[in-house]
Design goal:
Elements (H helix, E strand, L loop, with lengths): L1 E6 L4 E8 L2 E9 L4 H15 L9 E5 L5 H18 L3 E4 L1 H6 L8 E7 L4 E11 L10 E13 H11 L3 E4 L2 H12 L4 E3 L9 H13 L18 H18 L1
Parallel strand pairs: 1-4, 4-5, 6-9, 9-10
Antiparallel strand pairs: 1-2, 2-3, 6-7, 7-8
Helix pairs in contact: 1-2, 4-5
Length: 251
């Protein structure tokens, strides 16, 4: 089975090609250029380097949100375009689950933190549960959701970590933003993922997508749509202006 994975949910742009448990290629970049400038050239570079015949791809995996509104739209449009063109299914991977999957197999609670501005974070809580294997051999870990991904004030998710009473590993672009709050408010043992594991990676998205595919968690390109969790800034401003206008009229 061969999966093309795309992640443009955050500041990183990342693409990967995964086949039968092996990452054939991964290209990630953290740059000031927009994803619209970098994504398609990255995909083409990967395709050329591994001589990928796009017709051999079985599915397109993409982070489905939350995250950057513009980034999600770019990734979604690209995934849908390939899905339509190749007549292949799309595998939506919740952004926070894909990010947590970087720490596959850890016995700590995993808490991804994405900076959602205004002291809010896109976040969730996850743990890995050992699957049934032979003796001491573990064939696979399942990622289990303790707290569904959400957009909340950072204090709320840190309080939830404390309530669990277990060691927590934080990762994501929200870590440097909320590091002081973590130090002040977290009362359980905690740590931070190392640099090579603390941002979105398409290889992790692809590996998790393979599990979803086996479970039938796929959609057609026509069915797929990103999950934003909250209104964009422009939509919030329009809503606020509309409410203000209604208030003036009522007065």
């Amino acid at each position: 089975m061969k999966i093309l994975a795309i992640d443009t949910s955050g500041q990183n742009a990342s693409v990967a090609v995964w086949e039968d448990g092996l990452t054939l290629a991964e290209f990630s970049i953290h740059a000031k250029k927009t994803h619209s400038q970098t994504l398609l050239p990255m995909l083409e570079d990967v395709r050329e380097k591994i001589e990928l015949d796009m017709k051999e791809v079985d599915a397109i995996a993409v982070t489905s949100g939350p995250g950057s509104f513009t980034g999600l739209r770019i990734g979604s449009a690209t995934a849908k375009g390939f899905g339509f063109a190749l007549d292949k299914p799309v595998i939506p991977v919740p952004t926070l689950e894909g990010l947590a999957y970087n720490l596959y197999g850890t016995d700590q609670v995993v808490c991804p933190l994405m900076d959602a501005r205004r002291n809010q974070t896109y976040t969730g809580l996850y743990q890995f549960v050992r699957g049934k294997g032979m003796g001491n051999i573990c064939e696979e870990y399942d990622i289990c959701v303790i707290k569904e991904q959400c957009a909340v004030p950072v204090e709320e998710i840190l309080a939830a970590c404390n309530e669990l009473g277990r060691s927590v590993m934080f990762l994501g672009d929200g870590v440097p933003v909320f590091r002081e709050q973590i130090a002040d408010q977290v009362t359980v043992p905690y740590g931070f993922a190392p640099a090579h594991m603390n941002r979105q990676r398409a290889a992790a998205v692809a590996a998790l997508a393979a599990l979803y595919y086996r479970k039938g968690k796929i959609q057609t390109a026509a069915e797929y749509a990103p999950e934003y969790l909250r209104l964009s800034q422009a939509e919030r401003e329009r809503k606020q202006q509309s409410e203000a206008d209604r208030t003036k009229k009522a007065e």
